[in-house]
Write a structure and sequence with these properties.
Largest sheet: 6 strands, antiparallel
Mean pLDDT: 87
Distance between the termini: 29 Å
Number of strands: 10
Shape: elongated
Radius of gyration: 17 Å
Strand content: 35-45%
């Protein structure tokens, strides 16, 4: 790992719940993760108004649009696939040497259940 990068236990496509801030207890899917700065973007959470200038070259009109802003990664928690409640995540090394993410509460693998959903 490079200097300044952190291990993000949350990945794109994960179902998370916001545990702090104005959108507390909202749930959503992770759209983007920036591990180097510790930020995450969640669908339908932390909506901000952006004043957008028209760009005829890109066929984009101007006006005020709603868009998701980044949250601190510490303000979201993964949802346990078994109970549906927020849980911490740990890494477990499998017998073949691969690492998988496991929900601390139930011991259920987060990886396999996510693959089935999508």
């Amino acid at each position: 790992m490079n200097k300044g990068t952190k291990r993000a236990k949350v990945k794109k496509g994960d179902q998370v719940v916001v545990i702090a801030g104005r959108d507390k207890s909202k749930r959503g899917r992770v759209l983007e993760v920036l591990p180097a700065v510790g930020k995450v973007k969640v669908e339908g959470v932390n909506i901000v108004k952006k004043h957008q200038k028209a760009n005829p070259a890109n066929n984009r009109g101007g006006g005020i649009i709603d868009k998701e802003a980044y949250l601190d990664i510490s303000n979201v928690q993964l949802i346990d696939p078994q109970s549906g409640k927020p849980t911490r995540v740990k890494y477990q090394v499998e017998s073949d040497g691969s690492k998988i993410r496991v929900a601390v509460g139930s011991g259920q693998s987060v990886e396999k259940t996510m693959m089935r959903k999508f």
